[in-house]
Amino acid sequence: MAARSISQAVIKRLPRYMRFLSEIQAEGIDRISSKELSERMHVTASQIRQDLNQFGGFGQQGYGYNVSKLIVEIGKILGLDKPHNLIVVGAGNLGRALAGYSNFESRGLYIRALFDAAPENTVKDVRGLPVYGMDALPGYLATHNIDIAVLTIPKDNVRAVAYRLYELGIRGFWNFAHIDLALPEDAVAQNVHLSESLMQLTYYMKH
Q: Which residues of the chain does CATH 3.40.50.720 include?
């Protein structure tokens, strides 16, 4: 099935499946039924089967799902079957916090360096990762195979920086600036709005 025909709701659930299955694997469980998985995830067994059937199913009637195999298959769907190298642009509090989060590496996502407009005003390294000035970007990207740029810079600058990175060969953008990026069709941007997530929380608290 073509990727664009898969609903956004299903795509958003795939990383959640991966997280729960990884926890199940860590418990030493080799196989699990859709019913057992549904009880853990609070998603109906029917929904789980429908979601996974869009990619081939992966289960056997009367047996359930092989946990390790399903993790591998979902990883392939999510593009985690090969490692990805990332840079963080913006070495402020959020950029440093993301760079310091080592759990990305368990999924094959490796932050290699940070860049900042004023590197002299921030720490020299984060978890052993170097912090460079923005003028070092062209040379660094020319000599390192970087797939994704993590943008933690003010929204006033993010469009210009994103286009500069695009011109330097970056095609994946994880954008934390409070503005949606519109890029050429061969680039992909995931826009993360932390305040929107927090407002969803306050809505559910009220209702």
A: 84-196
Provide mean pLDDT across the span 20-46.
Answer: 94
Distances in Å between the Cα of 152 and the Cα atoms of 87, 144, 159, 175 are: 11, 21, 12, 7
Q: Which fold has domain 3-77?
A: Arc Repressor Mutant, subunit A (1.10.10)
Closest C-alpha to 172, from 152, 153, 151: 151
Determine how many CB atoms are found less than 10 A away from the CB of residue 56. 10
DSSP codes of every residue in 33-96: -HHHHHHHHTS-HHHHHHHHHTTT--EETTTEEEHHHHHHHHHHHTT-SS-EEEEEE--SHHHH
The tokens of 53 are what? 């059937």
pLDDT value at position 175? 97
**Which range among 8-22, 45-59, 79-93, 99-113 shows the weakest confidence by mean pLDDT?**
45-59
- Confidence tier at 5 by pLDDT (50, 70, 90): confident
Architecture of domain 84-196: 3-Layer(aba) Sandwich (3.40)
- From 89, 94, 73, 97, select the one nearest 172 (Cα to Cα): 89
Distance CA 29, CA 13 (A): 21
Q: Tens of pLDDT along 109-156?
A: 999 999 999 988 777 778 889 999 999 999 999 999 999 999 999 999
